[in-house]
Write a structure and sequence with these properties.
Chorismate lyase, Arc Repressor Mutant, subunit A, two-stranded antiparallel sheet, about 250 residues, alpha+beta
Amino acid sequence: MTSKAKIVPANLSDAGLTLSSQLREFIRSQIHAGDLKTGDQLPSENELGKMHGVSRITVRQALADLTAEGLIVRMQGKGAFVSPGKVRQELTRLQGLTEALGHQGMQVRTQVLMWKKLQAPPSIRTLLGLGAKQHCMALQTLRYVDNKPLSINHIWLNPMAAKGLTRDSLETADLLTLYEATHGIRLARASVEITSALATPVQIQQLGLTSPAAVLKVEKTVFAHDEQALHCEQSIYNPAMFRYNIDLSR
């Protein structure tokens, strides 16, 4: 159930910004601060104009900017609403999805699509430090957040790291957590590459996208403290639901 948001009028007095930009920034700050929550309905254009002493044209421009950023959605005949927040994962530390999102109050569910021994491609065997005749455990999963499909994951596990893991355990915990709990492995680091890609028909169907669709492709190799590669993974994310955060300092 949505609620009508209560907005305290802003003091739009920054001469360096247009009125629409000032209003946009004010509403954005209210969303980021949590004063405006997911599903909250914003006041109407007329109400916002009267509250802040600006024209409807100014309000419309501010709302159009916020809509383009994905912070609000506008529904014909109903008004503007705060959009559901994107899933956020920090790049400042190595952590699993469940671990990262638990702090955000989101529920993660994993569906195992495949779990079996396979011959990995040469590039994967090289990354994992395996011989030409050694097999890997291949894992494919579909992960949901709050029952919405978030990512498709293809993972090649070093046989040492896969030992003792079961289909059931893979559906109830992050791989990183299982490494630590099952094997007592000390995790050290991961190399990560993030790119964009055009979704395949299968990915569009699994993630519930509309064709054509762009997706976020994340390739990661996880290493133990002795620099042994534990697994290589490729994850395809619905970009409308996911983002990485990183803080940079100088």
